[in-house]
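Running this now, will post back.
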Amino acid sequence: MEVSARFMTLLGHQLAQFADRPELSSLVVYLALPRADGKPGLIPVGQWPSEVRALPAVAFPAVEEDPSLLLPSAERRWFPLRRHRILLGALRVETTQLPWPPSLTSRLQAVAHCLTEALLLDHEQQRLERRLELQSQQLRLLVHQLRNPLAALRTFGQLLKRRLEGDAPNRSLVEGLLAEERLLNRYVDAIDSLDQPPSLGPGAADPRPLLLPPALSSGEPQPLQERLEPLLMRAAATASLQGRSWSGPERRPEWRGDSAAVAEILANLLENAFRYSPEGAAVGLHCQQGEGDPEGNPAGLSLCVWDGGPAIGAGERQAIFERGVRGERSQGRSGSGLGLALARELARNLGGELRLVQPPSALDPSLPPEGNAFCLELPPALPSA
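Update: finished.
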């Protein structure tokens, strides 16, 4: 494995600090690298003094090419660049003055330790870069291949929709399929955008934790209704397949803002409700618009996904919002324990909050007297452009 230019720069600085020791005739750093014949060997990669760098192969050959280097010599010392049992290289020091001062030995040992750590970091960085490049290539390939079946789904869906002209119930199902296909395309675009190289340099901003890929949001305030309708259609279809009751909002909420983030939160909450509540338990979405304050400022919006299953235990009510924590209801089912944690982070990024309310009837007497309601509280809507 070759070393990077940064390691070579560090190596030069480490060796040059011995210019104050006239008794040292040379320092040579070898790395354990494959030779031209493929066999392992100690190959010189740097030396001091620098005047001989023009002919490194002549001035400092590989250890295997100069048997005299392996013979004992009072004027020569070897400092291994070693991590546990793995030999990464060696530092060879030649002197014209004996005995060796203890202070010089300690100083050389410190340099050898520094070079060992730098070499380990260099190797690790190169390994990660190769792995990242491979993952990037695979990601680009997968994104490219995903677009083909998505395009086919869109084509078949449009043809089916045309054939169902006049069949409103079935036509609405196809419209739901097409809406989901558009959402999948946005996800594919978002995945594709993650492959962009990060900005580096003194002026680069620190990366923010990834909550929602930028490609899923236009950056401009959008009406929530446009993102909410496909979710409601999906929820109604899921409830029908599972044979359970679904209660959607009587009126669609009027709210503008980062509707993509709100839709992601609601999608997570609805998925949890359908996946983890017992079979037959009702599920619904309750919307409550605030009344504003006396000064005429607009009020926020509360969107609550509720289920009529057993209440989440008191010992879990806060823990389930932490990353990787899964409640008792999720035992034996697939999942990562990230949905609620990401949903709460997104909510707070919006200036809102996500909280658990029990029972749902605490929100509205018409809701079940037992169960759970996850309430997304949003700040006032942003004005229209």
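The chain has seven helices and eleven strands. More later if anyone needs it.
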